[in-house]
Write a structure and sequence with these properties.
The complex is a heterodimer of chains A (191) and B (185).
Chain A lengths: L1 E2 L1 H9 L3 E4 L11 E12 L12 E5 L5 E3 L5 E11 L3 E6 L1 H4 L3 E2 L12 E10 L3 E3 L4 E8 L23 H14 L4 H4 L3
Antiparallel strand pairs in A: 2-6, 3-4, 3-6, 3-11, 5-10, 6-9, 7-11, 8-9
Chain B lengths: L4 H10 L2 E4 L11 E4 L3 E5 L12 E5 L5 E3 L5 E11 L2 E7 L1 H4 L3 E2 L6 E2 L5 E9 L3 E3 L4 E11 L39
Antiparallel strand pairs in B: 1-6, 2-12, 3-4, 5-11, 6-10, 7-9, 7-12, 8-10
The chains are: A alpha+beta (191), B mainly beta (185).
Chain lengths: 191, 185
Amino acid sequence: MILTGKEIEKRVKSEEIIISPFLPENINPNSYNFRLGRSMKVYRNEVIDPAQENPVDTITLGDDGYILQPRKLYLAETIEVIGSTCFVPTYAARSSVARMGMFINLSAPLGDIGFIGRWTIQLYSILPIKVYYGMNIGQMMFWHTSGEIELYNGKYQSAEGPIETRIHLDFNEKMIKSLNTLPDVHHEEEP
Amino acid sequence: MIVTARRIQELLNKGDIIISPFNTSDLDVNSYSFHLGDSLIEYECQIIDPHRPLRTNTIQIPDSGYVLKPEHFYLSSTIEKMGSSICASELYANFSTAACGMFIQTSAPLGHTGAIINWTLEIIVAQPVVVYPGMKIGKICFWENYGELTNYQGRYCESKNVVASRIYQDFNRQESHNDTYRQGN
């Protein structure tokens, strides 16, 4: 089940949901509007290689706004620290933001229960779009769980500001492990 | 929990879910298939600035179809007026649409409880794709709520057709003075 706005507010008060800072006027019937933070990261290299660390440049949003270039990926941050140890978060763009032609996540809306931090969102647009520090950009939803809860303890925990991919951390270790366990087609055919 | 087709039908009968027009044949096992309206809009401004109302150009989709291009961003709408006063909803492309290389929303699937409208769709294509008015394009699913209900009263409340972003209202206090959930969508 999805939490209603009233329920989100109640669980913020009981600290089962963390939204900090919290503005009561940003509650919607099923979500909370979060805001765009000051800093964004862009990849320096044209090719992103998951097997290696990818260097980034940092952009600081001034008060006059910043024009996003079409088809360029910007990793941005939420102003708010958001998370919950009781409910699973997912997030979406606000409709008014999506309607400008902008994604705020690239098919990755699902959060982990127990992750509490500033969220890194993926801004990607089809047209040049101006963004402003502090604008309401997305909506966090919270979902009831079924089953025993284990809390997230992954590599992005307690994130502070936009974080570039850390895929290389699991890439080497897991890739090698999984490749070693792949069935060998030729051997399988032997008796 | 997600609402099954049988339950969608029950809630339709009770008036707790609205889908209009509704055809039983478009009811899937846990969603309802909706259809594309007959118009598209595109922005005419060079830069989309949320501080300003956005100039748009409307395109009527002819019965013979209209070719969408990858470098463009289009808004269109659902033929159906849909929503629920007791469930939240989410809108997704159906597989057939996605398999043509088409997005019908840009990371904004959520329909708030109480938003009973003709939905605006954000359309992007991976390669040129022809669209036709009335074609089946996506699915709406419904989620049970947990907690005290409030109904969406935001700026897209009365939408009957495709509506461009009204984000400039965020930055204009007078316009949104009486709008309880002005930032709600």
